[in-house]
Design goal:
By secondary structure, the protein is α/β, with parallel strands linked by helices. The protein has two domains: 3-185, Glucose-6-phosphate isomerase like protein, domain 1 (Rossmann fold), CATH 3.40.50; 206-321, CBS-domain (Roll), CATH 3.10.580. The chain is built from 15 helices and twelve strands.
């Protein structure tokens, strides 16, 4: 076997693969530079609907359509994919006159979509289209048509949907994120729709993870002997100091003990050793955000306060890490 010849051919494949990626990247740049002027009309068409966004397409456009429908659903837009072939065998009954129909066909001439268009027209369903020009059948029958640039496919034959499908997917993602922004979709709402897996864990809130019972707290004016006992019992390497109204005014950590160690340490008051106004957080921030904060500031423990600065929980950095929050 000629190993040099094999190596040369493999390098050819690698360069060809890089070319595909670069051509798709260039197509996205062209799409951004020639962005549909009526994009806001498409967003408003969906926002003003009281129904769902029903996505349909055939072939590779269908696969892209499924992903767009899935993304829409995960970001709070009720959406599903309607297969155009199945639609002609009863699934048209899934459509409602309040829905918006998103049709995807780069050529704009996918004949499988024509019966769906006809049915939508008869029911008065609004149609949104994505195709490569305004003279295509689906564009002419749409209430709003988003046009993609005239793109050359990346495959050597120039026919396999590669560049065009990438651009279509990007436009669908742009539409989904625009809807999210207009609606003010929150992280809390996003978490409700993603409770499972690593994504769900990363979207958990501090309140879900923090320790709520037997908080290591002492009243102002307590002596350091009691502080060390309380710190040892809590096994967190810290205590919080609160005033008569149970407002957190300070915190003592192992580091504070080392800095103040002396023959008179046990006779001192917690007020003399504590770090005043320690960094605290609200219960409603994401644990992933808290982890970044703790790592950046090299903080091991943090108290969680209510609206009147009273401690309602404490969290150790390991409480987050052991839940595999990243």
């Amino acid at each position: 076997m000629n190993h040099k010849n094999v190596e040369f051919k493999e390098m050819d494949f690698v360069e060809e693969a890089k070319r595909v990626i670069l051509e798709e990247a260039n197509a996205l740049t062209e799409l951004a530079s020639n962005f549909p002027l009526n994009f806001a009309d498409a967003v408003n068409l969906i926002l003003e609907s009281n129904g769902r966004l029903v996505v349909s397409g055939i072939g590779k456009s269908g696969h892209i359509g499924r992903k767009i429908a899935s993304t829409m659903s995960s970001l709070g837009q009720k959406s599903f994919f309607l297969h155009p072939s199945e639609a002609q065998h009863g699934d048209l009954g899934m459509l409602d006159k309040l829905d918006v129909l998103l049709l995807i066909s780069y050529s704009g001439e996918a004949v499988e979509l024509f019966p769906v268009i006809d049915f939508a027209k008869r029911l008065g369903i609004k149609i949104l289209a994505i195709s490569k020009g305004d003279d295509t059948t689906i564009a002419k029958n749409a209430d709003v048509a988003l046009y993609l640039p005239d793109l050359l496919e990346a495959c050597p034959l120039g026919v396999a949907p590669t560049v065009s499908s990438t651009a279509t997917l990007a436009l669908g993602d742009a539409l989904a994120v625009a809807l999210l922004s207009r609606r003010g979709f929150t992280k809390e709402q996003f978490k409700e729709l993603h409770p499972g897996g690593s994504l769900g864990r990363s979207l958990s809130f501090v309140y879900d993870v923090m320790r709520k019972k037997e908080l290591p707290l002492l009243q102002t004016g307590s002596n350091m002997k009691d502080a060390i006992v309380t710190m040892s019992k809590g096994k967190l390497g810290c205590i919080g100091v609160v005033d008569q109204k149970n407002v957190l005014i300070g915190m003592i950590t192992d580091g504070d003990l080392r800095r103040h160690i002396s023959d008179h340490l046990l006779s001192q008051l917690v007020d003399e050793v504590m770090t005043k106004n320690p960094i605290t957080v609200d219960k409603n921030i994401l644990t992933s955000e808290l982890l970044r904060m703790m790592e950046e500031r090299k903080i091991t423990n943090m108290f969680i306060l209510n609206d009147i600065s009273q401690p309602i929980g404490i969290i150790h950095i390991h409480d987050i890490i052991t839940r595999k929050i990243v």
